[in-house]
Amino acid sequence: MARKLPKVDVVVVGVGWGGGIIASELTKQGLNVVGLERGKERKTEDYFMVHDELRYALRYEMMQDLSKETITFRSKTNVRALPMRSYGSFLLGTGLGGSGVHWNGQTFRFLPYDFEIRSKTIERYGEKKIPDGMTIQDWGITYDELEPYFDRFEQMAGIAGEENPLGGKRSKPYPVPPMKTTPALRMFGEATKKLKLNPFMMPSANLSEAYTNPDGVSRAACQYCGFCERFGCEYGAKADPVVTVIPIAKKSGKFEIRTHSHVRRILHSGNKATGVMYTDVTTGEEIEQPADIVVLTSYVFNNSRLLLLSKLGRPYDPNTGKGVIGKNYAYQVIRGGAVGFFDDREFNVFAGAGALGMSIDDFNGDNFDHSDLNFIHGANIAISQTGQRPIANNKVPAGTPSWGKEFKAASIKYYTRVLSVGAQGASMPFRHHFLDLDPTYKDVFGDPLIRITYDFEEQDRQLAQYCADKCGEIIKAMGATDKIEINRKLGPYDITPYQSTHNTGGVIMGASTETSAVNHYLQMWDAENVFVVGASAFAHNSGYNPTGTMGALSYRAAEGILKYSKSGGGLLV
Amino acid sequence: MLEQHDRKEQPVSRRSFLKNSGLVLGGLVVGGVAGSLLGKQQAPQQPGETPAPTADFNQALMYFSPEQFKVVDAACERIYPEDELGPGAKALGAAYFIDHQLAGEWGFNARDYMQGPFYPGEVTQGYQGRLKRREIFDIGIQEMNNYSNSLHNARFYELTPEQQDTVLKAFETDEVKLTTISASAFFAMLRATTLEGVYADPLYGGNKNMDGWRMKKFPGNQMAYTQIIEQDEFAKMEPLSLRDHQHG
Questions:
Q1: Superfamily holding A3-566
Q2: Can you tell me whether residue B185 is helix, strand or coil?
Q3: By the 8 A CB rule, do B189 and B181 touch?
Q4: What is the ipTM metric for this complex?
Q5: Distances, alpha carbon A154 to alpha carbons A171, A486, A555, in Å
Q6: What does the alpha-carbon distance between residue B245 and residue B248 come to, in Å, rounded to a whole number?
Q7: Which of residues 75-104 of B touch A (CB under 8 A)?
Q8: Where does the record place the Glucose-methanol-choline oxidoreductase C-terminal domain (chain A) (predicted)?
Q9: Least CB-CB distance to B81: which of A60, A79, A408?
Q10: Per-domain boundaries in chain A
Q11: Which residues of A are catalytic?
């Protein structure tokens, strides 16, 4: 029998961006919150030795220990799903702050088109534009409704940026000016202007100057040291939950964080949750934490997995298209891009910041005419200077051997002479892309792993090709030599090469109980005191990094939880 | 300097050996052979003199047998050879780096999901074998010697550089057919770890003296680039390591 603890107002499962934002907002209003985090405590001082490419970037120092828990993957239902035994396609976070600690900090807002994608696509092109099996749907919220929450996330994190000429309307400018520009960025800016496109500086969570946020948290400016993604920031210049929202929640005296606490079940009775059951991984003890409200903020995979393991909500069935938990799993189309070799010029590629970049949205969302194209949506196209580290960056022109004398000479020569323009392609959901529990493989506790059924579709291949050509035009206009590489071909989805940790869906939001799992406050239709927060709520994935939109939805959910708590029950409208 | 370090590390010092064997009488050193064995006391270092190089204690084996080490050392050097640009993998200590990595959690796949059941999967599902990285290296190294023997009747590290390249190429392209592991996957691992050994922080035993970084113009562990981030000119900097940070 699990040891039962006294009841609290709210229990939060996972303390990353979602959990941190929820905890800070609820404790400000006097609620008592317990945050259960399966990983360890984290603080800025931990990153004294952080400039270590091998340890952090290649041995995945900060990521989930896959020996204890992983995911399984198959391309389609008639293939046997097998475990992801080591890291590749995406990297799962763990520990205080979650993936919010080792992200790059690229903080976009999804486009107005995204939130009403189905209606707007039909309105402009007719229903036939949506291919068979593509399950896009409106999100049950509009960009305008979500705008104030985007702003709150940006003010809290201190996002550096300038207005996106093709983005949604902003109520306020970014709290700090854009980051510094580099020669590569300036070349991109000039080239895209020459091509009559609309460049803007990438919105960045790496502070461009010292900043004090509305919560009173002061942080120092980014030093462009070039160690962001997969690393923690020793300066606290990169916004992460540990240096922003978590200290605010702690200061209230109403937030208790329990690390090494792995939540395994949501306990429920009738149509309400009663709390959660977790294992203290340091002792193995099973503990029950009763709560009035349960908030899941444990990333896409564990949000779906916990609901399925707890038999809460209606599991999605790809055969009937009915059910909602596990539905509309989507990813990102990263392959379309172009690489330029600059024989006559060297760049300080080792310097940079995770969100130091410039981009265009001319080929993103529905900002361009798709009438004669065999796909919908598009990609944000960008150059970024995140800091090229030497083990992972050995790009050589096509035809060069991959080892030996010639390789050595070319990889050294081009290390400082390669620039790439990349497209971050949107990912549309399909009826046969979903998450469920694996029938065979288990985690360290003996619980089933989550299973991904996913592959790229013709939509993705067309999108990648189109965007790759656009990237190629830009890199040419930037003056790259004839050794240009355009990556047009998108193969089958492969779990081994890193692509992006932008997994989405599984517990999607929407306007109807039939087709979505949570409402526009991320409150579960089937369990009114359960809120499921994260990119799990995205009904599809846009051509951007997800954190900005995920952060906005977290603030929105916090408001919903407060409303729910005050009203004493019922579904929010 | 080297001499003295060696002596300290030996379980039985030369002095005690000599004492026990009765060659030292009453504290006086008998001349001839025995005297020279004891060595001369080093004169204390004078100010301004360059200190003698200290021993690299890291260059000893944690996992490989000497035979395995020779094979890997030779292979790394072909993957990343010494040339007019600078040292190759051998001088940079890449094979020591690989040895040390295999001795630890990475070699044991300690943070990988290694539970069964094991099934051969599709290529897109990634590695599905039950062998750990250290076991793959054991087999791969043995097979490199076997293949070298079958072609030239010699072990891999005894071949000419051109012959070694032929062997590596045969592994890279799966021309060598192995039953327990994939030759090309082993080669890919060998290539990847060679590059790690050349460019990882010297703390791990490779990239000796940061010379891998120097060749590539990577400045290592710098705390800030704010002063150069905007400039058009390329910034050439002397690299810094994590050791500099720890002891700086």
A1: FAD/NAD(P)-binding domain (3.50.50.60)
A2: helix
A3: no
A4: 0.96
A5: 12, 34, 11
A6: 5
A7: 78-81, 83, 85, 88
A8: 437-553
A9: A408
A10: 3-566
A11: 502
